[in-house]
Amino acid sequence: MCTYATDTVPVTGSGKGTPAWFPVTETSVYYDHPQHAPAEHTLNLDFLNPSRGPSARVAVELTTDSARALATAILAMLPPE
Amino acid sequence: MSHVEDALTAQPVTFPGHGGEEIEAYLAQPLGDGPFGSVVVIHHMPGYDRSMKEITRTFAANGYNAICPNLYTREGRGGASPEDAAAAARAAGGVPDERLVGDVDGAARHLRSLPTSNAKVGVIGYCSGGRQSFLAACRLQFQAAVDCYGAGVVGTPPPQSPVRFTPLLDQAPTLSAPLLGLFGAEDRFPSPDQVVELDAELTRLGKVHEFHSFEGAGHAFFSPNRPSYRVEAANAGWQLIWEWFGRHLSG
Description:
The complex is a heterodimer.
Chain A: E1 6-16, E2 21-32, E3 42-48, E4 57-62, H1 64-77
Antiparallel strand pairs in A: 1-2, 2-3, 3-4
Chain B: E1 8-16, E2 22-30, E3 36-42, H1 50-61, E4 65-69, H2 82-91, H3 97-112, E5 117-126, H4 128-139, E6 144-148, E7 179-184, H5 192-205, E8 209-214, H6 231-249
Parallel strand pairs in B: 3-4, 3-5, 5-6, 6-7, 7-8
Antiparallel strand pairs in B: 1-2, 2-4
């Protein structure tokens, strides 16, 4: 299916793309067909800096189980607010 | 139509699209003098990628001039990869319908201008391109159309959708071409109920159409490089496409 669903989250940080690091200003989160991963649907993350054009993008496609495990690990790893 | 089976040439070209902007495209042509029917191939939401170029070559290998316009040409300017351009287009809300119609119109004009053209042009699209194939056939003059599991012809997108498309059912009265619809019975976008609704409306309007829903297949069953590939549905679907275009684009 094409879910077409996307959430865009403003962020501050950096990502390492090609050829070098760049400031990341937003992240697209969506669950849909992957470009590359061998699964019908994946949780896709695009770390972006639109002001630098579409190539300023670090893309990750994770299987559903992987994405859930990663989300849990991230929350567990962060210091308390 | 005389062509040498499986003999073709393929190359990138440009043509004026919506607003006169130069649009990148992939053109595949059979070897031979023609005259040949033509097909505009509308790529899926992941973009102007290798698999869509392969499909475009497949049409040429079977005797059709075929062109696949890069609908994300504008997002990809500056050398972005097709994948990055697709992500940018998605984040920007998808391709506006007016822009799509203008770009497909330019692609069809390019095909009709080819010296081997028989002036008959069909349109086919996959995934989001299925909806866009229907849209183009409602807004432009084609001799045949194929919608491969296009979501959004009937029904509205999910609330979270960044892709701001509207249902097209109200445009069905102006459908200019016989429509072949190929769907997966296990697809959710479009759902089987939505396929039935579109079928009923086209019947009510007296529009020539033929719909097939394949059991055991979901979305994107034509994509051999994805787990969604279903060989039985894909093989049967290709045969239906050859029969449909053979009937409406030959001569």
